[in-house]
Write a structure and sequence with these properties.
Elements (H helix, E strand, L loop, with lengths): L1 E6 L4 H17 L4 E6 H5 L5 E4 L1 H8 L6 E3 L6 H15 L2
Parallel strand pairs: 1-2, 1-3, 3-4
Helix pairs in contact: 1-4
């Protein structure tokens, strides 16, 4: 599974989000490749799921076909786990 962590410039906050998603995926036993990137690159990159801020979620959703989940606290493993579980349920896993 390919997961993108997206922020405005693809440097700081998306890297923090990526590291937290990596931890959650490992804890959940999910085989995932997690990458961090900026919003422009994310719009042109196919991934199974995208995690980003509430502010960028609408813009990203309008540009990609796969699900986009907003995250408020990038270091909150419980919030990310809840969104990951929601994704897996909606995907049919």
């Amino acid at each position: 599974m390919k997961i993108l962590a997206v922020c405005g410039f693809g440097v700081g906050s998306s890297m923090v989000l990526k590291m937290t998603i990596d931890k959650v995926a490992k804890e959940m036993g999910i085989d995932a490749v997690v990458e961090n990137t900026d919003i422009s690159t994310a719009k042109a990159t196919v991934a199974d799921v995208y995690f980003t801020s509430q502010e960028l979620a609408g813009e990203l959703t309008a540009s990609v076909t796969n699900p986009v989940y907003p995250i408020k606290k990038y270091m909150d493993k419980e919030e990310i786990k809840a969104q990951m579980e929601k994704f897996l349920v909606e995907r049919g896993n």
